[in-house]
Amino acid sequence: MKEATQRPIGFLLSDMDGTLLLPDHSLSQRTIDAVRSLREAGVLFSLATGRPPKAMLQVIEALGVDLPTAAFNGGTLVNPDGSFLVAHYLPATAALTTLTLLCGLPDVEVWVFSGGDWLVKDAHGPMVPSEQHGLGYPPVVVDSFEPYLARIDKIVAASNNAGLLIELEARLLRQVEGQAQVSRSQPVYLDVTAMQANKGEALVTLARHLGVPLEQTAAMGDGGNDPAMFQVAGLSIAMGQAEEAVRRQADVVTGANTEDGTAQAIEQYILPR
Fold it and tell me: Cross-referenced PROSITE patterns, in alphabetical order (predicted)?
């Protein structure tokens, strides 16, 4: 854990699910007001999430975000006009290795994100309704993922068996070492993305783009894909309900997302600076 400094924060990059958003994927009024207070204080604010770009639009609009945002764990940086600032795709070899391991496993649903679509082989998987509610649009059913290997943004293994995902994470890390990032964005989701697709790289790129020194940036999140940005931010903030391994890597810990932890952090650790 870095020692939290007292430099003024000029840019906050926040995770969405489990951080900004309540469990039902909504925003509390206190969170909306806190982000508005940031903007009024001249602090830049943007989003970094494992979601695809079009699943961010409602939150972008609700919070008035007018900066580039990071989708697919930082694999795609999207300008406010919808154009791409950066786009990194999973190498076809790593994608094939991942799909070979995951497809056919019991208790695991395999989802592929490509070309703006959420691809599944079974639209009736038990975790599909929850994901569809969170994303705001339905999946596209395909017979095979192979036609999409050249342009995959992210592969997700979804399962309510969190222990199994921990085992799969360790196996995949060995099999795609040096080719892909593997992390659990939530206990029930295991994400596989390009090597450059991580929130730490996204924070560095966005800070450079915005002209904000890294020591004057803050990062906030709750999942296994968030410590990558904790490691480069001037101030890192973990949510109260995050796993201990995530909380341990942050400078400070705020309340849970069900307790308006994002607003608490903004009010306590950022605005006073």
Answer: COF_1, COF_2
